Records
---
Amino acid sequence: MRAAILREFGQPPEIGEFDDPAPGDGQEVADVLAAGLNPVDILKASGHFYGGNPPLPSVVGTEGIARLGDGRNVYFDAPIAPYGSFAERTLIDPARTYDVPDGLDPALAVVLGIAGLAGWLAIDHRARMRAGETVLVLGAGGVVGQVAVQAAKLLGAGRVVAAARSQERLDRAVQQGADATVQIGAVDDLAEAFREAGGGGVDVVVDPVWGEPAVAAMAAMNVRGRLVQLGQSAGAEATVPSALVRGKTLDVLGMTIFAVPPEDKRAAYETMAEHANAGRLEVGVERIPLDGVAEAWKRQTSSPGVKLVVEP
């Protein structure tokens, strides 16, 4: 079968022929309909993955939508090595998959996985947002941020502020439900801009960027606000004054979806899939043929602003 194959750590995958999977007990070969490209895929291929390096050679890709032998479409994020999602077929444990509703585009269904769960669970599971609260989403132009903006509205936020560097992406955030926007890099006092956009302050911050924008967001937060930390696209370090955290009794909450209980992830995925199938949740998607994986691999390192979805 044709697949994107990792042959050497630190190098992009090559398109070629790979042995067809043979199922063992509790396993099933499934036809891949769509596969999502994620930063974690590039990290795994680097040879420095904290969860253990994949074997060589192996098929890249962590998540996808596949069709089982009984005709059901399912989401999977734990393909059985050396098989991954960037191939015509993969090997999975059906018990670890989530059902995809009939009629939901597989390309959108895969967006709801790693990236979608990060955006949704940051609001619902980690921040435990209460109805009527004001939410600030940093990095709102990215895929996680797009989901977080919509999740906040769907879960009952009183006001949602989207922040990003690109005006074009902020315009999209408004279409997705943001009540106000802040263009990072275009204002002199970022904390004051956040505070004003939030109508006086913010209660919850979804932060996939860290660095200076996160510190400014903390300065704009209300007493007992919660910042959910997801990533570091604006910088791996930030200098945060002690008094800022103490004075407002702020909570800075680290989050990774890999630490979320499986039953909570399943419930969140099913809820998002229901919203997406009804047209209430959307994310920018760019479809990539299998032959385009190498170029997509390069683009993923620079925050493309849409979900790159491989359709084998």
---
Amino acid sequence: MATIAPVATSIAAFVGLAQAGPFDSPTAIASFAAYLAAFGPLNVSSELGFAVQQFFLNGGARCYVVRVQTVSAQSLDALDAVPLFNLLCLPGVYDRALLSAAAAYCVKRRAFLIADCDPRAGTPELLVATMKQPGLEHGESAAVYGPWLQIPDPLNPGQSRTVAPSGSVAGVYAQTDLSRGVWTAPAGLNAAIMGAEGLVFSATDLETAELLEAGLNPIRQLPAGGIVVWGARTLAGAGSQHQYVPVRRLLLFLEQSIIAGTEWARLVANTPALWASVRLEVQQFLQQMFQQGALRGASASEAYFVSCDQTTMTAEDIQEGRLVIVIGVAAAEPAQFVVIRIQQMTA
């Protein structure tokens, strides 16, 4: 039996147009200088390079970049070659059908889509109207941010450039994960966006509330001058167990970590001895998460439970080697469990 290790939570994947580099092949990037070396200078007709630049500026450390000729649902297939990524950005893309396809791909890969709002909506009223259009499918794995940002134009010193916010927000996610944990909302006064000098528009308190109600996570310019991410809601909608970004991402993190940490069971017979070992291993991992503040509750029994026995597996499951682990975690409220079902094939 091995100890379950926490997986990475903020490896980003960017898909878009670039000046150079291989097509449809994910390239691991660890700095903006590495991006320039692999994909050439910033492209005025593409948001990709600016988004990657903002990602690293705001706390991102690792990402994959896929250069495509046209951003489409098929473009995402190139990411099949990436063993693990957590955040997906299609900088500048706001087409609902394409974003729905991206969210569906995130469900498949246990990742999360950070989407840009429609750049044509230059006022809070217009942006609310665009958000009320037919919603994205698989909204539990996606969040939309806006308005677009204004940054010092790296191609024209002394001038400003309007850029998509997704790269900056992905960097804020990464910084929040590092400093406070994936279970913490990447929003509020601790979610400042570096490198931005303005927004396409500034929303009032009332307009901000309307944007939140419409499903958008607003970016706000505070009176003191700072620009911050001011929302952390998915597109799942009110009442969903996955309504909030940190809850959804915590569940994805737990699922990925437990799946990776129990792969050793593939080499063991599906017997009560295995079930006991797996239960102990998962309980130890969830206890560690509870002690770090990831789960809610005054006691472990209020924070999580783990089942792996004849109540989670049928006789057919056992005979055919299907190990089924059922865990419940209090991601938002004590003793209000969100249930995750994990399956491994055993020897």
---
Amino acid sequence: MKRRITALALLALVAGDVMGQATPVKRPRAREAGVIVGVFAPGEHNAITDVTGVRVGHTTIIEGERVRTGVTAIHPHGGNVFLDRVPAAVHIANAYGKLVGSTQVQELGELETPVLLTCTLCVWKAADAMAEWMLRQPGMQSVRSINPVVGETNDGGLNDIRSRPVRAEHVVSALESAAGGTVAEGSVGAGTGTAAFGWKGGIGTSSRRLPASWGGYTVGVLVQTNYGGILTINGAPVGRELGRHDFLKGADGSIMIVLATDAPLDARNLERLARRTVVGLARTGSTMSNGSGDFVIAFSTAESVRRRESRSPRTIQDLPNDRMSGLFQAAAEATEEAIYNSLFKAMAAGAVEALPIEQTLQILRKYNALAGAAR
């Protein structure tokens, strides 16, 4: 039996089929449980979609007993990105992985398609499907070159990855269902079959809104977690206390990090900003192992730095270097919290357990790492 299901339907399915219960088990986001990261406040939805114009879509693929994977699409804005390009940059912390299209982004400093995330052996199928979809869009009749950007992590532990189950209709569904507002997290889309720190991983997102004194800009991050290390939450040694980490039970893997901001940045400062997401990654207990692909793609949605080839050239007004520190802090905070959200929201699948919420909160209380009620 083949099914393509929505994020909300997946919550009920996983809770019933995997956990043996008739009703969904509600798992909180990290902040709802009292895990307050950093000093800056999140945006309205505490998601990458708090950056105006950014939209996210998921296709979750569950087929029979063996296929657990999906596609996640991130649109920088509501228009055609090829015709209205955004500055972008890539940072690679450890390159054991595939980020299709990264070399042209690095060379030209711009993004000309949405960003897709999926499983390792399906990146080329996803890239091909998105290229076909883009070429069908209005205004693309004379286009002869396109650079689809697709990242991945390896979900082969829960997914029959060799069957390469992602099809063109899955990619189109993710692209065309993308929306702003609340973003589904955990075992959904490209996070359906992933694992992190030995527990179920998945999709997570978070945002930060800088105070007016730092420009009032928004930074949003979305992650696909499938990596290992020794889980640390707000400084508390959760993995050590629970007796589960890479050096007891292997959890090697990768992470894809997508960062969006409305700050007017060129590719150079976007690359600097992308690097700071690794600060947040490190705080969660990752040491970026040999087999981990740790990739970051960052872009700016600011109108003032868009690259519209059909219009006359203009001077791009990049944010001064001495105004970057607040954005650096926001990137680290949002990345750290997005990773926690991916773990808190993910539910058990197959032999991979979900992070035990109550035990985790007990450890956080023990180390005074729990701030209290969400705000």
